[in-house]
Amino acid sequence: MPTLLITGANRGIGLELSKHYLAQGWQVHACCRKPNDANALNDLAKNYQDMLTIHALEVTNESQMGSLKETLHNKPVDMLINNAGVYALEASQFGKTDDKAWDEAVAVNLIAPMKMMEHFVENISISGKKIIASMSSKMGSMDDNGSGGAYAYRATKAALNAVMVSAAQDLRHLDITALILHPGWVRTDMGGPNGEISAEQSAKMLAEILDNCSIEDSGTFFDIDGSVISW
Ligand SMILES: NC(=O)c1ccc[n+]([C@@H]2O[C@H](COP(=O)([O-])OP(=O)(O)OC[C@H]3O[C@@H](n4cnc5c(N)ncnc54)[C@H](OP(=O)(O)O)[C@@H]3O)[C@@H](O)[C@H]2O)c1
Questions:
Q1: What is the pLDDT of residues 134-175, one digit of tens each?
Q2: Domain parsing of the chain, residue ranges
Q3: Per the confidence metrics, is the pTM higher than 0.70?
Q4: Is any ligand 1 atom within 6 A of the Cβ of residue 35?
Q5: What's the CA gap between 13 and 185, in Å, rounded?
Q6: Are 59 and 116 in contact (CB under 8 A)?
Q7: Which CATH class is domain 3-222?
């Protein structure tokens, strides 16, 4: 069965994507910062003992990422989903630039997905599906920015899009498809209670895109309904 490697899998969209692919029979390597506190994932592991492996991964911690690389050495990874992300509320308002919040947004939303690709490209290249998907946001689209604010979030997601378009070019010779996804406005801790869809719906719709993509889609910025978002 295919294998998924996903970050930020303990709650929100990451948890629902993990559940979705487990239900489809995939092997799932679910990464989270604190496995001992990841109650929902630990509950899932009771039902999917042989299919779900939970790994400790703070995505800004390169030595943890290196250990995971060693653990997964020579194992095919069909799909890497860079899902972990932060909104960086303290770096969202004009006149209130907080360096620490900016640094965290850059580290988590931008550099970590890049490093995940670099660490696991070999695993992906020896798999059947060969997909890398990064969870971006429509808020990273210049065209869509009609309301301003969210400086660090918008900037890091826009830069993530640029990283993914370069990766799409650079990894094409390995037959790897690199996708950029907007999961919708989702009712999670980040999206808040007024979001338009549940995390379960979002995961189902994202999986529809992921299950039907091909190398021709590499470098595309997909909306949750499968349409293309302009940069
Ligand atoms: N919700 C929306 O409406 C929406 C819209 C557009 C895009 N997105 C994107 O979709 C992705 C998932 O969002 P969500 O709504 O599910 O968010 P969420 O409920 O806030 O969950 C965020 C996840 O990222 C993890 N994370 C944050 N910083 C991390 C770090 N340094 N190392 C490892 N994991 C870290 C969190 O782990 P902890 O539990 O340890 O904090 C959590 O698992 C994000 O990239 C987000 O930008 C969401």
A1: 999 999 999 999 999 999 999 999 999 999 999 999 999 999
A2: 3-222
A3: yes
A4: no
A5: 11
A6: yes
A7: alpha beta
